[in-house]
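Interim report, section 4.2 (structural modelling).
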Amino acid sequence: MILPAIILVISLALLLNFFVTYCRLQVAAGRRVELSEAAREATGIEGQGVSGDEFLRLRRLVDLCPETDGDGYKLGLIRAYHAFLGVVRVLCGPVMPAAIAWAASERSGCSYYAAVALDARIAHTRQIFERDFLAMP
Amino acid sequence: MLGPVDYAIWILSVGLEVFVVAYSLAHKQFIRYLTLNIYMLADAIWTILCYYFVAHYGLTSMQYRYFYYYCDALLTILLYFSVFGLYQHVFGEMHANKYVRGASLMLLLSTGCVSFLIVHQSQDHLTSRFVIQLSQNLYFVGLVLTYILWGAIMKLRETRSRLIHLVLALGIYFSAYSATYALRNLFPDFAMARTVLPPLVGTWLPMAWAYTLWKVPEEARLATAQLAASHAR
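Predicted structure of the assembly:
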């Protein structure tokens, strides 16, 4: 019974490590993208500072637009990551202030990622509109 | 009794695995990611055969159980080759491929010997508990290999985005499976670890690899230094 318990603990720790790193890659990639003026107006975001609490509102806006270029997979992942960070905030809050700061920064990244996805979807929807409707004779 | 969700997950898994192979063939990357593609192909065939065994013998039959667990163990060993394929990508520029090949051969031989000894000693009681232990150990070895590879990627400041994504997806897969089997070992009556988690975790790898090959270009670069720095913070 000891060996499976050790394997379980190590596996869960490494799962957490791989999962967080994988999600951080996506969030970091999102941070490198500049939001368009249209998206800033639609979301009310200024600069790169967006609160982690905005994530759900942005996700709802993203869901209003049709999926673009198979981004549903990454958005699902970011949603899971955001939920995980929420758990970290609640569990580590009283004892680890550094974890709170880290989780807040990452949650902000998740929100920014959702805004970037929204931007891409708005642009894609506009393209479809211009191609299929405005071009109609 | 399997429900529509189980069949949907099966179909999704096979579809994604076939997509990975077809995409690699179409973009002339089949040889470049040979071990990954062979594993995806073998896994797709295994999934289809699982359906055959369920349809002909039933979900609770011994035939299905033996086929499922022993082929799963063989597939895990096949996945080791994918890990070593990724090692070769990481160490390729250092001309260390012969050492990687030697290490993989040694690991394969030692895994084969240890597995043979375990099976030989336990042949009177080759129970489902035994195969769960075997799978747990095999997945854990895979996890350790992947973690070492990830350590090498961080140490060498590897920047190839696609490679990093492939390795991280593999790490999540191995660790999730290893944890699932350890849970089953510790709590045999915990139904979720037996029915819900394995198909979900099994779908993760083809999904993540399919997405990576499709969306992350070969030439994309990433600063792992940034990642390492923020990890250390």
